[in-house]
Design goal:
alpha/beta; globular; single chain; eight-stranded mixed sheet; four-stranded mixed sheet
């Protein structure tokens, strides 16, 4: 069967055998989708044809000057690449307000694990929003980063979202993933995309992303100017997970390569030895004012959260040194917080903490 892409007809066998970039529709196309003329994410769907789809390939928006070209995408007229690595200098040189750069890749840790992120530059006088996904969830698996990206684009506010190592587009084994590794990856992404001394950020952490954002904020008080936590679950490995383990599960996790499948709420998560052991070193809820974070913090918690008790949020509020902390309970909100009302609440708090940041440019003649 033939596939029609734009004005070029390509044999299915030809398409199937080639390598395509991760933002390109060809990578996501399957034989079943072709036969069913189903919607293909990332493509502009035009019309089904007999045993084929007519589509327009999604273009990879990353400028060539900002990346090291490795494997050209085989998709006709795509212009993307299958894998890429980018330098901080290249990203900043090519960055243009409102133009998203997708699938940027950096190498982190001693083992040079690849970490992939998307970056849409915004106005320099507004903090960039950085979304930190939940546990075992890539950016493509939830709607929150998509909603944030759209709102940031409307406001011309910068936006960054990454995949932790071991998830989705990034390299590495999830079994090696830990809070400390993911914190280091977030910092590496910030260094690659932004100038620390000039460009500020608001961190939005969902689930374990809320734990990660607390560590990043402590390490970068000069750059992080606001936090928004969504169903944040700091210290969950010790406070929530460990008390529920059976003796057999605990015995398995005590082994260096130990891993269990744990049903938690409505989902089943892979829990491994490295995550639990590292969690002991990354605890933050150590009593009143034990977290030296002083920027504005907004926390949203669903009272119907099936994974994290609402009492954990109260403990977090008490532990933060910041005097500007607000906690909002959503009566029917679950752990995901992915209703339209939840998205509006998330964006309201992102704007609120963003608007609290300002600084005077004393180097400008017109500054006062």
């Amino acid at each position: 069967a033939d596939l029609v892409f734009g004005f070029r007809t390509v044999r299915w066998e030809e398409v199937h055998a080639e390598t395509f970039c991760s933002s390109c529709v060809f990578l996501q196309m399957t034989l079943a989708a072709r036969n069913a003329a189903a919607f293909v994410p990332g493509a502009a769907f035009l019309q089904p044809r007999h045993r084929a789809l007519q589509i327009t390939a999604a273009k990879n928006s990353l400028p060539l000057a900002a990346r090291k070209r490795r494997t050209p995408c085989a998709a006709p007229k795509c212009g993307g690449i299958a894998t890429m690595s980018a330098s901080a200098e290249g990203i900043r040189r090519e960055a243009k307000t409102g133009e998203r750069m997708r699938d940027l890749e950096i190498h982190v840790h001693e083992d040079k694990t690849s970490v992939v992120f998307d970056y849409t530059p915004g106005k320099k006088d507004i903090p960039t929003v950085v979304y930190l996904p939940g546990f075992f969830y890539a950016r493509t698996k939830t709607a929150k980063p998509t909603s944030l990206a759209l709102q940031c684009k409307r406001k011309q506010q910068g936006f960054i979202v990454l995949d932790y190592s071991g998830t989705d587009r990034s390299g590495g084994d999830f079994a090696h993933g830990t809070v400390s590794r993911w914190v280091a990856e977030v910092e590496a992404v910030l260094d690659a995309a932004l100038e620390r001394s000039r460009e500020k950020v608001v961190l939005v952490g969902s689930g374990i992303g809320g734990w990660i954002m607390l560590h990043v904020a402590q390490r970068r008080p000069d750059q992080v100017v606001g936090l928004v936590g969504l169903s944040a679950d700091p210290d969950f490995t010790e406070k929530l997970l460990r008390p529920t383990l059976s003796e057999e599960q605990q015995s398995t996790l005590d082994k260096p390569e130990g891993e269990i499948e744990l049903k938690w709420g409505y989902r089943t998560y892979p829990i491994h030895h490295a995550l639990v052991e590292d969690g002991k070193k990354m605890l933050v809820l150590n009593g009143r004012d034990s977290i030296p974070v002083k920027c504005p913090v907004r926390l949203v918690v669903g009272m119907a959260d099936e994974e994290v008790p609402s009492s954990l949020a109260l403990e977090l509020v008490d532990a933060l040194q910041s005097r500007d902390v607000a906690l909002e309970f959503v009566k029917i909100g679950d752990h995901a917080l992915e209703r339209e009302e939840d998205f509006r609440l998330m964006w309201r708090y992102v704007c609120e903490v963003s608007d609290k940041y300002f600084e005077f440019d004393l180097g400008s003649p017109a500054s006062g």
